[in-house]
Amino acid sequence: MIESLLVANRGEIARRIIRTARRLGVRAIAVHSEADADLPFVAEADEAVCVGPANPAQSYRNTEAILAAARSTGAQAIHPGYGFLSENADFARTVEASGLIWVGPGADAISAMGDKINARNLMAAAGVPVAAGTTEPAADVAAAVAAAAEIGYPVMVKAAAGGGGMGMGVAVDEAALRTEYDKVRAFAERMFGDGSVLLERYFPRVRHVEVQILGLADGRVLALGERECSVQRRNQKLVEESPSPAVSPELRSRLLAAAVRAGEAVDYRNAGTVECLLDPTTGEFFFLEMNTRLQVEHPVTELVHGIDLVEEQLRVAAGLPPTFDPDALTVRGHAIELRVNAEDPKRFLPGPGTIKTWVEPTGEGVRVDSGYAEGNTVTPFYDSLMAKLIVHGQDRTEAIARARAAVAAFDLSGPKHNLPFFAELLENQEFLSGDYDTSIVSHLR
After folding, report:
1. For residue 397, with 0-12 CB atoms within 10 Å meaning exposed, 13-18 middle and 19 or more buried, which class applies?
2. In whole angstroms, what separates CA 138 from the centre of its chain?
3. How many angstroms from the chain centroid is the CA of residue 429?
4. Residues 310-347: pLDDT tens digits?
5. 85 with 66: CB under 8 angstroms?
6. What are phi and psi of 39, to 5 degrees?
7. Nearest-5° angle of CA 302, CA 306, CA 311?
8. pTM of the complete model beyond 0.85
9. Which residues form the catalytic set?
10. By CB neighbour count within 10 A (0-12 exposed, 13-18 middle, 19+ buried), where does 142 fall?
């Protein structure tokens, strides 16, 4: 097993990785910005290094500062968490060239999946269902208009270098396409340094379902079940559950087999996620993207499979076999994750501030992965995620009941937060039925 691990991230995911590392006897090293010096993950690490000011470009995305911290602390490996440098292929290569262990997939897999057009083409070649769309970037508006005429309206306009729901727009006709193309291209150039744009068929009613994959050290790729991620605002997930209430055993078999093919196509190692769009009317699913990292919503998979994905990541990176029997995976009950964000529960606008009260719910089947505590300040410099409230039950009905009780028991004041939204959602008949899609949040507004 790896002996010392530098966690190149912050907040709840840094704290969560540190928790597993310390349980395994691995020395955990935190890096932090000046703004995060008082957060729990810094105090809970065996060692901590300040890598710069609040601006992420000068701290959490500062590759030189992070590598210097690894050298000065004698770290053997680097875990990037999610966001920041987690899907930066150049950083992964630099880490390994420096003689350190990268806890994640190989740089080639990150590169292959980072370009959405290249990813679509690779998946299609591997026999993974892909929605109708462009096989190369739309060089200009005229090319986009011509492509849309072949695909058929409505179309999704996407940044080829984007991910995580950023850099997307829907066009229902040519006039809208001309507007969305310019918007997405400008956003992509500003955010990703790459203005390449792709077009895909847009599904007015669709569910967002993803599969957790794990590429083992021996070369096998496993599919660890699916997660339902259709409760979203502005293409950003708010709630995830596993198993998906929309997936039948027959569909699950096809979905998981396709995810394994996707991983095998890029010789995938470590944890990753194959995201798909599911047409609930036809049962067709289509590859959306592959996230070459640990997902925010990984705890629901952990709870239904009874495994620790961070531990499995460390074992793969160290060349060790998994803790479980790959040929005897079981699913136990149902799990739901609610993302507790510092944001207005109606308009979902950020609402940072100092936490006056923070009392986490407890009880059977309740887990809280938090990044903050009472007295901490949620700053505007980073993502608004404060904690993940995860519940597990024998079935979906019990999981929902536990989620309701946990939301009611979570005593939080200071920053704005979205717990009232979850209280409303957990009483909503559309959600309770399990027959919902990505438009559900708009129905609650």
Report:
1. exposed
2. 27
3. 27
4. 999 999 999 999 999 999 999 999 999 999 999 999 99
5. yes
6. -75, 155
7. 65
8. yes
9. 293
10. exposed
